[in-house]
Design a protein that fits this description.
Blueprint (H helix, E strand, L loop, with lengths): L12 E8 L2 E9 L11 E8 L7 E6 L11 H4 L2 E4 H5 L7 E4 L11 E6 L5 E8 L3 E10 L1 E10 L14 E12 L10 E9 L4 H9 L11 E5 L4 E2 L8 E9 L9 E8 L2 E7 L1 E2 L3 E8 L8 E8 L6 E8 L7 E4 L46 H5 L7 E8 L14 E5 L5 E6 L6 E9 L3 E9 L7 E9 L6 E4 L1 E4 L43 H5 L2 E3 L2 H6 L5 E6 L14 E5 L7 E6 L1 E6 L1
Antiparallel strand pairs: 1-2, 1-8, 2-3, 3-6, 4-5, 4-7, 7-8, 9-10, 9-18, 10-11, 11-15, 12-13, 12-14, 12-16, 16-17, 19-20, 20-21, 21-23, 22-24, 24-25, 26-27, 26-35, 27-28, 28-32, 29-31, 30-33, 33-34
C-alpha cells in the first residue's frame, strides 16, 4: 500500500455489492469524520450478507484493481493487497456493525473488496462504488505503447462537495492496461510518467496522425498542461495481467473532453513514448424487438439492455407477451439469427463467457443460485422462468453480462423457448447506431463469408466479426487453422500466392497471447492478426455443417479492427490457412465495403 500525500474532499459513502458463489448482499462504508473530527478517517462499516452458513466468517481485504462486473474474481484481476482489514479489525461476519479509524475512503474508490470465507473457502469480489455518479473516459494507444486507459471521475452532485476539492480537482481513478508495441522485455519492466494536455479540437483523423508518430512532432508539451500524473503507469512485462489502477486528484474533464482535444502523453524520462486522445465513453443500449406478425399467438414485445461503461453492471428490462402461456425460458444465444421469422442460424446454446468457466452439470435450478453459477446468456436461470406467464415485465441487474469487449452480448439473438426447448421466438440484440459493414466471400476449398460491422462514431469503436463456413471438403473436423487479414489485394481468381504480409498499419510487433496472459489488450496485436486476438479456428466436417449449420458459425467482438481511417481493413485480404499451422491457404478473399447503415 502506498501512502497518499494528498487528500480529496471526503468521499462520504462506498458500497460493495456481492452476488456470486451463493453469497448475496453488501458491505457499506460511511465516512463520519465530518460529523466528528474531520480528517481522522473515521468510518462506520455495515455488512448485510445472505447465503451464509451459521457462524461463517470472512477474511476481508481491499485489493488494488477493480474487477469488472462480468469478470471472474481471481488474483490476476484484482491485483495486490491494498488494505487488509482482517489484520487490523479481525474477521467479518454477515451482519457486522463496526467503526474503523484511520481509513480514508477516497483512497478506496472503485478498488475491489474481496471476501474469503474461512469456512467454505469461497471467494467473492465487490467493487467499492461511490453513491455519486461517475463519468468514464477512455484513451487507446496504438504506437510505441499499446493498450488503453479508463479514467473514472466521481461527479459532484448538487448539494454535495464530497467529490471535489477547493482547487477544482476531483476524485479520479485511472485503470491502465499498457504493453510496449516493440516486443517483450522480461528483464526490464518499465514505468511511464504521464501528463494531460488540452489543445484546439481536432478531428479524429488528425489526432490519429499524431498518435502514429507518437506526438513527437508536437514536442514534450503539446498544449496547455492540465495535470501531471502523480503515479506512473507500468508496462506489462509478459508475466502478469497488464492491469494497474491508481487514484489521484485530477481536474474535472467533463466540460473539456469534446470541446477540446485532451491528450494523454506517456513519457520515459522526458522522452515522449506514446500519446492518445481522451474520449468520453458513451453508454451502450440495445434492444431485441419481437414483432412477428405471422400469428396472434406469437411472442411480442421487447427486451432491452443498457450499460453505462465497462465498469458498470448491465441493466436488463423485459417486456414480453406470450398469448398461449407456453413459454418456459429466455436467454441469449451464442449466435445471431439470420431470419427471425424462422429463427434460423441459431446455435440453440446459451452464450457462455470465456472468462467464467462453468460445470453445466452443477448449474442450480432456476433462480436458486447467484448469477455466476449459470451460463452468461441463461437469463431464466439467473432471474426465473416464464412458466405459466402470459406477460413478463421486469427490470433487473445482470452482473455477468457485458455490452463491451470480447464477451459482449451485442449482436447475439434473444430466444424464447417452450418446455420442450422448442424456439417460440427470437430477435437479435441491436444497438441501432450508424454502422459501416464489409464482407469477404469465398467459395473454393471452403465456402462461406466473413462479415464485419463497426459503428461510425470512432475509428476505435468495437467491430463485430461474424464468420460463416457453409461448406468444407473435409470428412472430419480439422484443427489449428490460422486466420489473418493481409495487406495485399487479390482478385476472385487468385490462388492466393501473394496476399502480402499481415495488415499492420500501426507497426505492432508479432505477439503471442501466452506471453502476457488474458489481460493483454487487442491493440497489442497486429490489426490483421485475428488468430492472435481470437485463437485458431476449428473447421467442422462437411457432414456436421449439413446436419447443424451453426457448427460453422462464430461471432467475436474486436476492439482493434477498424473499418474507418488509415487502419481500415477494407480492400485488404482475408486469409484462412491450412490445418495444424500449415502456411498454405484454404481461403483468400478481398474485404469489400458493403453498406453504410444510418
Amino acid at each position: 500500500m502506498h501512502v497518499s500525500y494528498f487528500r480529496f474532499a471526503t468521499t462520504e459513502t462506498l458500497v460493495a455489492e456481492f452476488d456470486a458463489r451463493g453469497l448475496r448482499g453488501q458491505v457499506g462504508f460511511i465516512d463520519i469524520s465530518s460529523r466528528t473530527f474531520r480528517g481522522q478517517g473515521l468510518v462506520n462499516v455495515t455488512s448485510s450478507l445472505k447465503g451464509t452458513i451459521k457462524g461463517e466468517m470472512f477474511v476481508w481485504k481491499v485489493y488494488s484493481n477493480p474487477v469488472l462486473p462480468h469478470e471472474s474474481c481471481t488474483p490476476h484481476k484484482y491485483g495486490p493487497v491494498f488494505l487488509d482489514f482482517s489484520e487490523s479489525h479481525g474477521l467479518l461476519v454477515s451482519d457486522a456493525r463496526l467503526q474503523l479509524g484511520d481509513v480514508f475512503l477516497e483512497d478506496l474508490v472503485e478498488r475491489t473488496l474481496v471476501l474469503k470465507s474461512v469456512t467454505t473457502l469461497r471467494v467473492v469480489c465487490g467493487i467499492l462504488r461511490p453513491t455519486s455518479r461517475v463519468t468514464t473516459f477512455s484513451a487507446t494507444f496504438v504506437k510505441g505503447v499499446t493498450g488503453n486507459l479508463l479514467i473514472r471521475q466521481v461527479n459532484e452532485d448538487p448539494g454535495h462537495t464530497c467529490a471535489q476539492r477547493e482547487d477544482g480537482r476531483t476524485t479520479t481513478g485511472i485503470l491502465s492496461s499498457l504493453v510496449t508495441s516493440f516486443g517483450v522485455d522480461l528483464d526490464s519492466p518499465r514505468m511511464l510518467t504521464w501528463r494531460l494536455f488540452s489543445r484546439k479540437y481536432e478531428a479524429e483523423d488528425e489526432s490519429l496522425k499524431h498518435m502514429l508518430e507518437q506526438c513527437r512532432s508536437l514536442g514534450s508539451f503539446p498544449g496547455t498542461l492540465l495535470h501531471e500524473g502523480l503515479y506512473p503507469f507500468p508496462l506489462a512485462n509478459g508475466l502478469d495481467d497488464a492491469r494497474h489502477y491508481e487514484l489521484e486528484p485530477v481536474p474535472s474533464l467533463l466540460s473539456l473532453v469534446g470541446q477540446y482535444s485532451v491528450l494523454v502523453v506517456l513519457y520515459e524520462g522526458e522522452q515522449v513514448e506514446a500519446c492518445s486522445v481522451l474520449h468520453r465513453v458513451k453508454p451502450k443500449r440495445a434492444s431485441a424487438v419481437f414483432n412477428n406478425s405471422r400469428s396472434p399467438t406469437e411472442v411480442t414485445g421487447q427486451v432491452g439492455v443498457y450499460q453505462v461503461s465497462p465498469l458498470d453492471p448491465v441493466k436488463l428490462s423485459i417486456n414480453l407477451s406470450f398469448p398461449l402461456g407456453n413459454a418456459m425460458a429466455l436467454g441469449v444465444d451464442q449466435l445471431p439469427t439470420e431470419d427471425r421469422t424462422s429463427c434460423s442460424g441459431l446455435s440453440l446454446r446459451f452464450h457462455e463467457s470465456s472468462d467464467l468457466e462453468l460445470d453445466l452439470d452443477l448449474t442450480p435450478a432456476p433462480q436458486q443460485g447467484t448469477p455466476d453459477l449459470y451460463p452468461t446468456g441463461d437469463w431464466s436461470g439467473k432471474f426465473g422462468t416464464l412458466l405459466g406467464l402470459e406477460f413478463a415485465a421486469a427490470t433487473v441487474t445482470d452482473t455477468t453480462s457485458t455490452l463491451f469487449g470480447t464477451n459482449s452480448v451485442l449482436g447475439r439473438s434473444v430466444v424464447v423457448y417452450d418446455e420442450l426447448w422448442r424456439v417460440l421466438g427470437c430477435a437479435n440484440l441491436e444497438d441501432h447506431t450508424p454502422k459501416i459493414t464489409a464482407r469477404a466471400s469465398f467459395s473454393k476449398v471452403v465456402e462461406g463469408e466473413l462479415v464485419l460491422s463497426q459503428p461510425t462514431d470512432s475509428f476505435f469503436s468495437e467491430t463485430q466479426i461474424l464468420l460463416k463456413v457453409n461448406k468444407t471438403a473435409g470428412t472430419e473436423a480439422s484443427f489449428g487453422h490460422r486466420w489473418h487479414i493481409h495487406s495485399g489485394q487479390v482478385d476472385s481468381d487468385s490462388d492466393c500466392a501473394s496476399p502480402g504480409p499481415h495488415f499492420n498499419p500501426y507497426g505492432a510487433s508479432p505477439t503471442q497471447r501466452q506471453q502476457f496472459g488474458e489481460g493483454i489488450p487487442d491493440t497489442t496485436f497486429e490489426v490483421g492478426d485475428l488468430q492472435g486476438k481470437h485463437g485458431p479456428l476449428t473447421l467442422p466436417a462437411a457432414v456436421d455443417i449439413k446436419e447443424d449449420p451453426s457448427t460453422g458459425r462464430w461471432l467475436w467482438t474486436d476492439s482493434n479492427l477498424p473499418l474507418l481511417g488509415v487502419g481500415s481493413v477494407i480492400t485488404r485480404t482475408f486469409v484462412m490457412h491450412g490445418k495444424n499451422g500449415d502456411a498454405g491457404s484454404l481461403v483468400c478473399a478481398t474485404i469489400e465495403m458493403e453498406e453504410l447503415v444510418v
